[in-house]
Write a structure and sequence with these properties.
501 residues, mainly alpha
Length: 501
């Protein structure tokens, strides 16, 4: 029978590689990394559904607007179909923290595939508009629950791999967007919904074969045997296992020092308040909130939501110019997917700060050049006639390329990294709760900025918008430079130590 006492456990196994005074991370070979990479791909496969549901309205609305569609919609209906997902997302993100703290990261990750399946079934057999509304609310709510995958991967991954594996979250979200756009160009929306429904079922089945988070087993359930079993499934190398288990014991010891099992309910409440107001909690929380605010106000998601309208405007007034709406959506999906893939590939060798700052500077450059170029080259019809000029496809296409560059740089860092930082900066004890609150706030801000953007676009010239966004990106880069710590290769104890200063 497995010994549940941590100190006895250390004496039963081979001597740990480091002591409490020397918390050294043991290097991980690619052979030892294979199990974690597979676990991350299986776990993050569920967030394909997030990307799919965010982009599904782009193929659903045009097909419902066709004359022979069995479900007829108005322009107002189309707006609600697109935005209702963003409204429902914060509700799921708010409750996922307590749920996964009580029932476990793995169980919640398995269970959230079920409501996705229900949502797709509603859409597959929809005969009325309210069926689609219900499906979109369910899928939006469930999308908020997928924060469990980020927390799960952050707790099963080795410090040297954590940053790269967390970057897979955005790779799979982008893959969901790309698959939906591709399916939507060749298939009807009901067939697309069937394929995405099957993907959700496969994700839930795959999660059943993965171990539970060792941090959840030990910190929340006090299950030393379960934590050891989970670590053994992830780390077959004895030296790596011992180093990770020893570090897990240190985290557990810190948590025990902060709490007392004989506390009254009032004392526990005071302890929770004290924990939330501790420097290791409130500092990263404030930093993350401001990074999410920067992510939304710099317009990365806004440009993606309204990419078709912006592309159409940049292509000029002629209906024969430029590319089709669906072709531009597919191109956007490909760029997002490739850029997030690049972010994953470079994240093992480059830190979050450097990638985020590169992303921000690239976004600032592209938006500034696009704004200035549009200002000096895209003239009104009256100006063109007065100066005896003619419009040029190249003029519009150059601005179009810089907008694509903006999306590419955004998908490299600003659109992807803030979500994964939740799994790195926040302490284990509050990661589920505060992470859920931050994700909810991020989605609320996303909904707000996406909703007000059409009014801004009607009242302000597009070149002015691009120039303002460029300034906001540079301010965001300065904030990251001065306040965001590097997490590459650091374990959770070292990250907490940074904020304790």
């Amino acid at each position: 029978m497995m010994n549940d006492d941590p100190e006895d456990r250390l004496s039963d196994e081979k001597e740990p590689v480091f002591t409490q005074s020397q918390d050294r991370v043991v290097a991980l070979s690619w052979k030892d990394s294979f199990r974690q990479i597979i676990a991350a791909c299986i776990s993050f496969s569920i967030v394909i559904q997030v990307g799919a549901n965010m982009s599904f309205s782009s193929i659903l609305v045009p097909q419902l607007a066709e004359k022979d569609s069995p479900i007829h919609i108005t322009r107002s209906d189309a707006s609600w179909i697109a935005s209702i997902v963003a409204i429902a997302l914060p509700m799921g993100a708010l409750i996922v923290g307590p749920l996964m703290d009580v029932y476990g990261r793995k169980k919640i990750s398995i269970l959230i595939s079920a409501p996705f399946v229900v949502a797709w079934i509603f859409q597959i057999y929809a005969t009325d508009l309210w069926h689609i509304y219900i499906a979109r609310v369910i899928s939006g709510f469930t999308g908020g629950l997928t924060t469990a995958a980020i927390v799960y991967i952050s707790e099963i991954s080795h410090p040297s791999l954590r940053q790269a594996l967390l970057s897979l979250n955005s790779v799979f979200v982008s893959l969901g967007v790309l698959l939906t756009y591709l399916f939507g160009t060749i298939l009807r929306w009901r067939i697309t919904a069937m394929l995405l429904c099957a993907g959700s079922i496969l994700s839930g089945v795959g999660m059943m074969f993965l171990p539970e988070s060792p941090y959840w087993c030990l910190i929340f359930k006090n299950d030393y045997g379960g934590a050891q079993k989970a670590l053994r499934a992830l780390f077959k190398n004895h030296e790596v296992f011992d180093s990770q288990y020893h570090h897990l014991l240190l985290v557990k010891r810190k948590a025990m020092n902060r709490s007392d099992g004989n506390e009254t309910r009032l004392q526990k409440l005071k302890e929770e308040v004290r924990l939330i107001t501790h420097k290791t909690v409130y500092k990263p929380t404030v930093i993350l909130f401001l990074i999410f605010f920067a992510q939304q106000i710099t317009g990365g998601y806004v440009i993606i939501f309204y990419a078709t309208d912006i592309f159409r405007k940049l292509d000029g007034q002629s209906q024969n110019q430029g590319m089709t709406e669906m072709a531009s959506l597919v191109l956007l999906g490909v760029i997002r997917f490739l850029a997030s893939g690049v972010s994953f590939l470079v994240s093992k060798n480059f830190g979050r700060r450097s990638i985020l700052m590169t992303s921000g500077v690239g976004m600032a450059f592209c938006s500034f050049v696009a704004g200035v170029y549009i200002y000096f080259t895209v003239l009104s019809n009256e100006q063109i006639e007065a100066m005896n000029l003619t419009t040029s496809d190249k003029t519009y296409n150059i601005a179009f390329l810089f907008v694509l560059g903006y999306v590419a740089f955004g998908s490299l860092g600003f659109l992807v990294i803030p979500w994964t930082l939740i799994g790195e900066l926040l302490p284990v004890k509050v990661r589920g709760l505060i992470g859920g609150v931050l994700v909810s706030l991020a989605y609320v801000m996303m909904f707000f900025f996406v909703k007000i953007f059409p009014a801004i676009l009607d009242s302000i010239d597009i070149h002015s918008i691009f120039c303002v966004v460029s300034i906001l990106n540079l301010v965001s880069v300065m904030f990251i430079y001065f306040f965001l710590p590097e997490t590459l290769g650091r374990n959770f104890s070292e990250i907490e130590g940074y904020f304790e200063r």
